């Protein structure tokens, strides 16, 4: 096989790889459940639209760990996770799994927020409860 054909074959393979990557990214974004807005003062606690009470630690700082606790969680819920982002900014993969502590209480301890290189402090928390996602905005110190 000549050198030109090898280069052409490599270019075609790279284009096919790029197209597959774009398709899979589009598919992944469209299969994720849409978040329902859930206004909440997370450090004071609030009731989400599904009736579950959510509360973060009294103080949330970008460089210090904090806790999240949900109360009134039904027994049939499969899993609960929380991830953090910012409006118009990808914060990378940062999903935390909440674990059952008994009596309908689920919690995640020692969570750390992803750091923003622009020093912003306006975060979004996506709380995924059994496949339903609630999004709430909050500010870290």
Number of domains: 2
Strand order of the largest sheet: 1-9-8-5-6-7-4-3-2
Spatial gap, N to C terminus: 62 Å
Quaternary state, please? Answer: single chain
Provide an overview of this structure.
The mean pLDDT is 87. It is built from 1 helix and 9 strands, in the order H-E-E-E-E-E-E-E-E-E. It is α+β, with helices and mostly antiparallel strands. The termini are far apart. It has one helix at residues 3-31, and strands spanning 35-37, 46-47, 53-56, 66-71, 80-85, 95-102, 105-111, 122-129, 132-139. The chain has a 9-stranded mixed sheet with strand order 1-9-8-5-6-7-4-3-2, with no helix packed on it. It is elongated. This is Secreted protein.
Secondary-structure topology with pairs:
Layout lengths: L2 H29 L3 E3 L8 E2 L5 E4 L9 E6 L8 E6 L9 E8 L2 E7 L10 E8 L2 E8 L2
Parallel strand pairs: 1-9
Antiparallel strand pairs: 2-3, 3-4, 4-7, 5-6, 5-8, 6-7, 8-9
Short description:
The chain is of the alpha+beta class. It has 1 helix and 9 strands. The protein has one helix at 3-31, and strands at residues 35-37, 46-47, 53-56, 66-71, 80-85, 95-102, 105-111, 122-129, 132-139.
List keywords for this structure.
single chain, 141 residues, alpha+beta, Immunoglobulin-like, 9-stranded mixed β-sheet, 1 helix, 9 strands, elongated, Secreted protein
């Amino acid at each position: 096989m000549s050198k030109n054909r090898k280069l052409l074959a490599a270019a075609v393979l790279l284009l096919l790889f790029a197209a597959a990557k774009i398709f899979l990214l589009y598919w992944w974004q469209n299969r994720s459940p849409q978040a329902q807005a859930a206004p909440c003062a997370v450090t004071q606690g609030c009731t989400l639209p599904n009736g579950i009470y959510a509360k973060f630690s009294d103080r949330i700082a970008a460089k210090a760990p904090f806790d999240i606790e949900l109360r009134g969680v039904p027994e049939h819920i499969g899993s609960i996770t929380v991830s953090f982002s910012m409006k118009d900014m990808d914060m990378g993969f940062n999903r935390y799994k909440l674990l059952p502590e008994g009596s309908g209480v689920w919690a995640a301890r020692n969570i750390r927020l992803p750091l923003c290189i622009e020093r912003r402090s306006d975060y979004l928390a996506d709380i995924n409860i059994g496949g339903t996602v609630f999004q709430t905005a909050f500010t870290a110190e």
